[in-house]
Amino acid sequence: MRSHDLVIVGAGSGNAVVDERFAHLDVAVIDEGPFGGTCLNRGCIPSKMLVHVADLADGIRDAGRFGVRARLDGVDWPAVRERVFGRLDREAAEGDEARRYDPNIHVLKGHARFTGERTLLVTTGAGTGAGAGTVTLRGEQVVLATGSRPAVPPPVQESGLPYETSDTVMRLERPPHHLAVLGGGYIAAELAHVFHAAGSRITLIEQEDTLLSAQDESIATAYTTIAADRYDVRTGTALTRVEGEPGRLRLVLDDGTTVEADTLLVAVGRTPNSDRIDAARAGIDLHDDGRVVVDAFQRTTAPGVFALGDVCTPFPLKHVANREARVVAHNLLHPGDPVRTSHEAVPAGVFTRPQIAQAGRTEQQCRQEGLDYAVSVRRFRDTAYGWALEDGTGFCKVLADRRTGLLLGAHLMGPQAATLIQPLVVAMSCGITAGDLARTPLWIHPAPTEALSTALLDLDLDPGADPGGRPERPS
After folding, report:
1. Which secondary structure element, helix H or strand E, spans residue 99, and what is its range?
2. In terms of Cα–Cα distance, which of 55, 66, 58 is closest to 387?
3. Which of 342, 352, 357, 368 is nearest to 398 (CA)?
4. 0.90 exceeded by the pTM?
5. Residue 379 contacts residue 395 (beta carbons within 8 Å)
6. Which tens digit of pLDDT belongs to each residue from 198-235?
7. If you average pLDDT over residues 6-26, what whole number do you get?
8. For residues 362 and 409, is the Cβ–Cβ distance under 8 A?
9. 76 backbone dihedrals φ, ψ, rounded to 5°
10. More confident residue, 469 or 174
11. Residue 445 annotated to the active site
């Protein structure tokens, strides 16, 4: 049995735990896939590189609205795919190679399972073409960062017919003629945008009554209307079975309708990979949904074992995993002075068309919690820069505590929403009131941020609750 000071299972955000501060430790990093995890290889980064191409293509198609005569000759999908994955595959390989040059780090390619307290059996060689073998190792401390994988519902699995997930669909040799997308969340919305811009016909199938149902109700309703003008949208219905043959699929829905497509993309959610590590043998408890139980310091129920990222977090987002990795790194090095992870005001973006961003509570959550809140909506078309953009659908919605003026939630839909929301995230994270945020800094005119500042000013707060605007200091 090999012994190490630290064993990290997962080379996505788990790989970010170790830096020069760990040079005095003997570290093992285990992963059966390429370095960089889901985000680099099959998630956030390739999808956003493809989304940018889709935005460019759609921008050319829409240029006539601005008096610009332009023509799109098509999207060269093989060239686009090579540009994206030619770079990302190289980045993953270089990350692996760089770790192997670290004298104190031992890289193991394989699948790890616990056999006891901080003891793991690693099956190597599987799926690599090399002969399979096993290695047993133990860590004085262990970090779990095994991520998650696409969930696949029984009707798809039981059909025996081919399907794609976000792990595979971005590497297709060519865009499908007709892509049926099962699911209506952010992955479904982003990839529908990508393949529609590349020339595919899109059908979205979602069992909820709206697409993006986890978003604020105003966003979900507005986006569903926009998507229905662009795609074949089937909401309020579920898949019962898949029939046909490869390349000629027939999806039977529970409302009696069918969808015929050459390709099926399954995007109904993700499953934590905790079921693949024999967590119980290590004394690691799981939530009912499969996530590893951690405390505010990212410690599991097993002494000396930490967890981070999709395998444990309620917010399966790369920026959350990176923050948790920094917390774990500190707590490994400074056990007597641990720091906590904060999941307050977690921002998230949906890189579809139009772009969407959110942070904090939705209005439906405010109602469910019985909060006394004020709400304000300002449309981009009511600002001068909105005129420049010819934007007729985008808006900013803010929610604030009526008594204190503190922001409870923010929801944006429109160009660059994921960037525009950041001042509101800062305010929520730092306890800045709506009045102070609206009146203390100057907001550039004309700019899309004016929709944010005016929405803040329009909030109907209790008199005197949040006058905002600090007086100028005497010179």
Report:
1. helix 77-101
2. 66
3. 357
4. yes
5. yes
6. 999 999 999 999 999 999 999 999 999 999 999 999 99
7. 96
8. yes
9. -80, 85
10. 174
11. yes
